[in-house]
Inverse folding.
């Protein structure tokens, strides 16, 4: 058994030696990660943490009958990084679609595509991943009402007339601390009051409940990035 294989077996049983073994192989881990991602990586990249975790798993799962430890570890790192890359790509794609449906005109397909690209860029480049953090926090707020951030893709109004009607309702709630408190307390929309105060039909209020609640939470919460996509609502509030 080669030296690296022997050390891997020992590291799986000896925590102190395990830490030393990992430090000794940091360059190996980075090299495997870089080969998988096809780009230069440092220990400041998220991929490093994924690769490091994969290497640790490889140590714990390794046995002599698996052959070369280096080959086994490289395979585990590659699989974990591919899973991570796919999950990130899915998140960015869903984010782009969800945000572009928050407040876009259905006729402006070219503009929507531009918005989606801008969202992807912001998701990747915004300082401290601010947009991603807002989405995660907003998702936690929405979960109290029984839906997720990405559910908005399916339940957002498509027609401009309906979007404006929903924006009117959102503005009506946002402008009243009493209505905001009532919505949060009951976890539902005060349909009768909103129908009377906004003039928007009950059918729209019920059909687009999730979108309206999400809009209220975004506009009253600490979500500057997300609020930037609520154009119709901002226009209604500025009337």
């Amino acid at each position: 058994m080669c030296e690296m294989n022997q050390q891997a077996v020992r590291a799986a049983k000896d925590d102190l030696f395990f830490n030393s073994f990992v430090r000794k192989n940091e360059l190996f881990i980075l090299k495997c990660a870089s080969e998988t991602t096809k780009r230069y990586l440092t220990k400041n990249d998220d991929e490093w943490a994924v690769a490091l975790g994969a290497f640790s798993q490889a140590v714990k799962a390794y046995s002599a009958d698996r052959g070369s430890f280096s080959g086994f570890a490289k395979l585990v790192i590659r699989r974990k990084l591919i899973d991570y890359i796919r999950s990130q790509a899915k998140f960015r794609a869903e984010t782009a679609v969800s945000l572009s449906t928050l407040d876009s005109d259905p006729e402006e397909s070219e503009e929507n595509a531009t918005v989606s690209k801008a969202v992807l860029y912001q998701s990747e480049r915004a300082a401290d991943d601010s947009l991603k953090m807002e989405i995660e926090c907003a998702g936690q707020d929405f979960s109290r009402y029984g839906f997720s951030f990405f559910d908005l893709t399916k339940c957002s109004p498509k027609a401009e007339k309906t979007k404006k009607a929903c924006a009117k309702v959102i503005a009506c709630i946002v402008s009243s601390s009493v209505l905001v408190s009532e919505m949060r307390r009951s976890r539902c929309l005060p349909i009768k009051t909103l129908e009377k105060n906004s003039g928007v039909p009950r059918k729209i209020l019920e059909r687009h409940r999730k979108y309206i609640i999400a809009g209220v939470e975004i506009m009253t919460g600490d979500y500057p990035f997300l609020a930037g996509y609520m154009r119709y609502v901002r226009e209604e509030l500025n009337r």
